[in-house]
Each structure stands twice: as structure tokens, then as C-alpha cells.
Amino acid sequence: MNGKIVNQKAWFFVIPVLLLVSFNAIVPLMTVINYSVQETFGDNVFFWSGLTWFQEILRSERFHAALTRQAIFTGAILAIEVPLGVAIALAMPRKGIWVSVCLVLMALPLLIPWNVVGAMWNIFALPNIGLLGKGLNALGFDYNYTRQVGDAWFTLILMDVWHWTSLVVLLAYAGLVSIPDAYYQAARIDGASRWAVFRHIQLPKMRRVLTIAILLRFMDSFNIYTEPVVLTGGGPGNATTLLSIDLVKIALGQFDLGPAAAMSLIYFLIILALSWIFYAVMTRNEEQ
Amino acid sequence: MTLELKQIGKTVGGDTHIYPTDLVLEPGRFNILLGTTLAGKTTLMTLMAGLEKPGSGQIFFNGRNVTGQPVQKRNVSMVYQQFINYPSFTVYENIASPLRVARLPEPEVRARVERIAELLRISGLLERRPDELSGGQQQRCAMARALVKDSDLILLDEPLANLDFKLREELREELPRLFAERDRVIVYATTEPTEALLLGGFTATMHEGRITDFGPTGRVYRQPRDLGTARVFSEPPLNTAEVLVLDGCCRLAGNLTWPAPAGLGNGPHVLGLRPHHVSPRREQADRVALESRIRVAEIAGSESIIHFDVHGAHWISQVHGVHPFEPGSAAVLYADMSRAFYFTPDGKLASAPAGHRPAGGL
């Protein structure tokens, strides 16, 4: 066309990526959508069922209960990890050899594989042999996370805080060290209080990284599966059965492909919608 | 209102940042700290402000010893190279912030903020936040914050360095009007000799933690106390060469001679010549011709800056107009020796151009 050179060889560079993306994203998603609108009685025979599964899931009390547990879990860990992470970042040194020491210590929990974290805490919290479990009982607390709902939740949240607060710390710290010294000098000249420095200099300057931290923590905690499954297996009873654990029970335990597929899609849309709302709210002021 | 430093020094971890310094700064004029980066200008300012404690010496304000007093109690303002404003406040709240800390009644806060905003031409921007302003407007906001409280000491640390050329010129013209009339001590740090000359007032030249000279800006420029001062106060850098003075005759590199200025003693001296007194064209007959080779030529606006090799030394010529020069080619450089400084081998000024003799004492 108009003497423009069309180089068909470019396709060789595009096709591998296209194949990769379709195999790891588009095809699985299409499969799930396919299952979610069909009914099967085995033998690879499928019948069209429309939106029945979606209606069933959205009306089921079991789904509501799992969603509520999920919301409580995510809300709790955000409420603890974000302020705690910012507080630790504020307390960390800015200069000298202790910076590296602190950063390495902070990064350690993030480097441990998730199932190992679950296994560690499972043993750590065992009431008869674990350091935490036995210690709490020795101090007079009636602690048993495999039997008591409150204890299971306490352990679950403590594990997540231990595992992931570091992420918030590292991001907040990066935000803090990027503030030029002149800001703190200017605040001292004004006679601003420590709180005013935090509220009007450090917090606004950390805004972007904290937005990222909250989004990441929100999405990861809403998706969390490995650690709680290794720690409590969703128990006692269904007390710590979060959305992802419930989904696996339906899909692989009961092999209800249709409802599981419908639930996956609803689950996916909830995360997508909430992430978008979070992001829109947190960046709203910048766009004004 | 006088700020007086007596033997003020600062050492950090074995590194001397400021050698013991004496300085008396008077109100109502610009006191300029001129020096390259890392000369100690900012450190000296933080000591003046009380942001850092001096390692030695004392600071007096109006005869009162304020050495140990923290900055909050000193009534000081400072403007930085970076545009420092509270990011979440509007321009109005930013300017008002020092008054709020002082707990002034709201009507007075409003009146003062509006008056200062008008002076700095940002009245129309009061409801915006700093990240919605241009660099120049952000710096105007920061200056308004410094001016709104009636501080006794205003420190400006390279306030124009991060602005582009046009905004810098514009603000530089306004600065004397904004600051100099007031009865307070103004200290202005800059790396640019031109800026010091334009602002006038008094200049202290700084080099590696020492004040090398202090006096009226014109005097420091025309009669620098030593070679270090002349170097700091020359942009592009000062051209220097070792010359031998013998019986009223200066000799460079064995065979080049010209008459020495009256009163210059015999012996080796260091010649200092500012780049605009050296030209590749012979403008007048009495110029001294130097064999040289062109290293590189740069064009800066309407001026050419040409680098030469002259008898092993690196010399620079600054001339008006845009001239094409071929790097590597041989050229003759014409020096106006009537504008030359002569320093003794240990760096003291021995002779300044146009008959100026170094004044005794300073």
C-alpha cells in the first residue's frame, strides 16, 4: 500500500506471545465460562443451563458465609498491616549499616514459599508442641487453634501479618526515603509538630506507594489459599473457609464443575470491581 | 538587626565542612554566599538558621547570643533549591502555615496572605495545590511562605537554580524589590558569579569550607583578595599562567614579554585573566599574542566559548557572536594584559587591573 513496506516476518515475533497468552489466560477463562453455563452428568455430555448456576451461587448461604469470612479477613489484615507497616517504616533508620540489616530482615518473610509459611505456623502454633501454642497455654490462655474458632482466626491473621507486613514496610520506606531533607528542615523552621510532619509531609508523599501497597495487599489477601489451607484446612468446621478454599472444595472435592465455574467468575468479578473502586477512590484527589 | 558569626566551625565525622569563620551580616541588603557546589554554603546557612549546632564558635543576633537556640525559637525563614511546599495544602494554606503555627487570628492571616500573594503575583492561584503549579509558581509560593512571617533572618539557598532560564531572569529581577528593602538580614547562596553581580549587595566567596573574601560585591569582583576568590568569581573559569616579573617586564614561557603594571615586585607570579579579556581576534594593537591550539568551541546563546591549549595550560576565551572554529587547528590568542590580575605564588593579590591597588586590611 502506497509503497509502504509490509514485513510479514513480524508475525514470527508476535505469534509465540499470542500463543502463550491464549494458553495461560484466554483458553482457561473460556473453559470456565463454558462450564458455568452448562450442566453435565458425566461421560462428557453437556446440556445448556443458562444462568442457573450463577443464580444458585448468588442465592446460596454457603457462598454468602464464605464471602463474609473473606471480607472480614481482608478487612482485618488491611486494618493491621497498613498502619503497622507505615509505623515500622517510620521507625527504620535512614542512614548507616542498620539500613541494610533492617531491609534484609524485612525482606526475609517475603522470600519464604507460601506453603512453608503455612506449615511453619501450623507447627509453631500447635498447643502441645509448638512454641507459640505451648507458650500461650503455659501463660494460662486456653489456646487451641484446631478446635476453637477465635484461636483459628487469631492465628490466621497473625500469620498473614507476619508474612506480609514487610511488603507494606518496604513500599512505605521507599516512599519515605525519597522525601528530600529540605522538607523536614522547612517543617522545623515552621515549628511544625511531629504529627503535622507526618500528616502534611510524609503521608502525602507516601500516597502513591501506599495506594500500590493497599491494592496489592487487597488482591493477594482476597485470593489467599495456600497458607490458610496448610494452617487450618478451613477449619475448625468451616470457620476459616475463605472463598478460595470453598471454591476448591466445590470444584475438586464435590466435582460440581458448573457451580464451581460460576463461582470462579463471580469471585473474579468481585476482585476486579473492588480493585477498581479502591484505585478510583485513592487516586480521585489527584485527578481533580 | 545584625547577624554575627564568631569563629563558627563545623566538623562531621572527621571531615571539616566549615573552618572557623568570622562574618558580620547587615540587614537591608543582599548578603551573597558565592561558591561552587560543596563549598559549604548550605552548611553555613543551616548553622546561621540554627538547624544544626556549630562544632565551635558563637552566633550573635543583634548582640544577643543565640548559639544554642533551636530554629523554632529564632524567627528564621528559608527558601530552598527544591520547591518546598506542603503537598496536601492549597497555596493559601501553604502561605498561611507559619502564621497558623503562630496562632494569629483568622482576619489577620487572610490579610497578610493576600498582601504577600499580590506582591509575588500568585493571587490567582491561592486555591490550587502545589502539584498543579509550574516550577516558577511553586517557588513563588515557597518565597511567599518565607516572607509572610516577619522573620529576622531570611536564607535563600540557590532559589533559582532549578528554574529554567526565562523564569530565573524574571524572578531575579523581582528579588531585590521583594527582599532588600526590609529591615532583616538576607542571605542568598548561589553558584553563579553573574547572579551575584546582578543582585549587588555584599558577597562572601566560599571555597572548600572557608570564606576567602567578603566585601561589597563590586569590590570582591574587581579586587579579589586572592587567587581562590578570583577563581570562584569567574565564569567561565579564570585563565591562569605562571609568569616571571623582572624589572617592569612580565615574561611568559621564556619568550613572550609585556610591560608589568606599575608597582609589581620582581619574582614569580600567577597571572589571572578572565575569559572575556582573551579573544581569538586582535581587537587592539597592544594585545599580547599567544600561540595556541583550539581544543573545542561551544556556543552559549549569542556567545562563543572557545577552549585553547596555551603553552600546556587550558585557557578559555569568551567572545560575543557565533564563530566557527575548527577543533585541533592552530590559532593565535590575543590577551588584554591591562585587565590581568597578578597573584603572589602563595595566592595573595599583588596587582589588580586599571590601577587598583589591593586595599590594605581587607
Would you kindly provide a written description of the structure presented here, covering whatever features stand out?
The complex is a heterodimer of chains A (288) and B (362). By secondary structure, chain A is mainly α. Chain A has a single domain (60-287), classed as MetI-like (MetI-like fold, Orthogonal Bundle). Chain A has helices spanning 10-36, 52-59, 61-91, 98-111, 114-124, 131-138, 149-177, 181-190, 194-223, 226-231, 243-253, 257-287, and strands at 38-40, 46-48. In chain A, helix 1 (10-36) crosses helix 12, helix 2 packs across helix 12 and helix 3 crosses helix 7 (149-177). Chain A is globular, with a radius of gyration of 24 Å. Chain A starts with 9 loop residues before the first helix and ends with a helix. Chain B is α+β, with helices and mostly antiparallel strands and 362 residues long. Chain B folds into two domains: 3-229, Rossmann fold (3-Layer(aba) Sandwich); 239-351, Nucleic acid-binding proteins (OB fold (Dihydrolipoamide Acetyltransferase, E2P)). The longest helix of chain B is centred in the middle third of the chain and has 16 residues, at 165-180. Chain B is globular and about 75 Å long. The two termini of chain B are 23 Å apart. At the A-B interface, helix 8 and helix 9 of A face strand 6 and helix 2 of B.
List keywords for this structure.
heterodimer; A: 288 residues; mainly alpha; 12 helices; 2% strand; B: 362 residues; Rossmann fold; OB fold (Dihydrolipoamide Acetyltransferase, E2P); 2 domains; six-stranded mixed beta sheet
